[in-house]
Every structure is written in C-alpha cells, then in structure tokens.
Amino acid sequence: MSTRSSRSILPGFGLSLGFTVAYLSLIVLLPLSAVFIKTSGMTFAEFWQSVSSPLVVSAYKVTFFASFAAALVNSFFGLIVAWMLVRYSFPGKRVVDALVDLPFALPTAVAGIALTTIYGPTGWIGRWLAPHDIQIAYTPLGVFVALTFIGLPFVVRTLQPVIEELEPELEEASASLGASRFQTVFKVIIPQLFPALIAGTAMAFARSLGEYGSVVFIGANLPMKTQIVPHVIIEKLEQYDYKGATAIATVMLVSSFILLLLINLLQKWSRRYHKI
C-alpha cells in the first residue's frame, strides 16, 4: 500500500485538488490578474503619475499611518482582553467574549454610522469633547478610531488559543524563584506570546488597509485630510479613470500580498516556537 493511500482518511484527493484550484482561480486569481493585466497596459510614466500624485500620496499616508497606529493600540489592549477572557471567570464573560466578534459580524457601514453618532460634534461623547476643542469625527483621529474598532478581534482571537496553552506553572515557578511580577510578565509570559502577538497585529494591520465602510462615515472623506486609498480608487472608477484605479489597486495588492506573506511566516515561526 502506498504512503499516500495509507495516510488518506477521505478519498478523492485528485478531484478535491482540481476543484480547489479551479475555484480559487475563478474567485481569486482571475479578478486579481485582471488588475495586473489592466495596469500592464500603462507606460511607466503613466503608472507613476497615477500612484504618486499629491492626493494619492496623502491617502497612502492616512491609510498606512492610521492602520499601523490602530494595530499597535490593538496589540496592547487585545493582549489584555485575551488574557482576561482566558484566565478569569466573571459575570457576563460570555457576553464580553461575543462582543469581541461584533466587528466581524457588523456591516462596516453600520459601524461607521454608529461611531459617527457617538463621536460626532453632537454625539454622545463628541458633544462633551467639543467645548475643549477636541474633535474626533471628520479628522484623522476618527479614522484611527474606526480602524481600531475593526481590528481588535484579530489580535484577541489570535492570542486566545496561545494563552490557553500557556502553563500557569511557569508563572508559579518564576514567582517561587524570586522574580517580581514585572519580571514574570516580560521575561516569562511575553516571550511565549510574542510570535502570536506579532501575527495578530499584522493581521489587524492588513485588515485595516482595506477598510472602507466605517472610515468613510466617520472620516467624511476629506481630500488631503481624511481620505483613504479605497475611496480614491472608487473616485477614479466614478471618473472612468480605470487605468488610474487599477494602478493604485496594484500598489495596495502588492502591499497586502507582502503583509500576508509576512503573516504566514510569523505564524510558521510561532508554531515552531511553541513546539520547542
């Protein structure tokens, strides 16, 4: 008996592989290749002009900076939330655990409207900040708030299984050897969680790069101020500038691909680290 047949649990590997390749080609590869094919019809001068105009560069800065800042904040608070959900029992724990997934299930437009209602100049929180000249909605800070909202579940759900496998005996041993809480956290716990934390943060960052619905409401799409790359692409399409739209989309696709490759490498590193 061959090695493949002896290890196979379900039959039909060839059929399953063919279906998988065909499905991914039609749903994923074909649309993405169309973007690159459309862009390839441009000269380098046209491509560079489309992706480096002041409006587009400003959108890059807002998108990447706000996404990176939101991912960093989520890495800190996501660790705290994941630790609390795994290590502590308290009334309403299941409700809190379900709320973490709310950004996954909530339509992004609904999230944007809700955030604008809360942080707008006349919102529940915004009206208390306005007298102090603090404005969240319609500013880059509002974009940051929206991206923080949608990115938190990626960090929490990546960390939870790792924390569940973390043995409390390690912390007890550290304390018995005279280590302080600070030393236990940063020399025992954080090194164990670091690979998963980096992977979750990278996924939150990658997700934020493509966010549109929630940002367009609370950011108000102000050019050179709060406009993000996805909205620039939509405006290009509305102006029938298909080549310009696909050129900008190509830049974002390459950036996303690099991030996904980095995430896979980090996840592979994380699995190896925990097997040692």
Describe this structure in words.
The structure is a single chain. With about 280 residues, the chain is mainly α. The protein is built from 14 helices and no strands. The N terminus is likely disordered.
What is the 3D shape?
A: globular
**Low-pLDDT windows of residues:** 1-5
Describe the main β-sheet briefly: none
Strand content: under 5%
Distance between the ends: 33 Å
Helix content: over 70%
Tell me the layout of helices and strands.
Layout: H1 3-7, H2 13-40, H3 44-51, H4 54-87, H5 93-100, H6 102-105, H7 108-119, H8 126-129, H9 140-165, H10 168-176, H11 181-209, H12 213-219, H13 229-238, H14 242-275
Helix pairs in contact: 2-14, 3-14, 4-9, 4-11, 7-9, 7-12, 9-11, 9-12, 10-11, 11-14, 13-14
Descriptive tags:
about 280 residues, mainly alpha, MetI-like fold, about 80% helix, disordered N terminus
How do you describe this structure in short?
The chain has helices at 3-7, 13-40, 44-51, 54-87, 93-100, 102-105, 108-119, 126-129, 140-165, 168-176, 181-209, 213-219, 229-238, 242-275. The protein has 276 residues and is an all-alpha fold. The protein folds into 2 domains: 1-40, no CATH class; 42-275, MetI-like (MetI-like fold, Orthogonal Bundle).
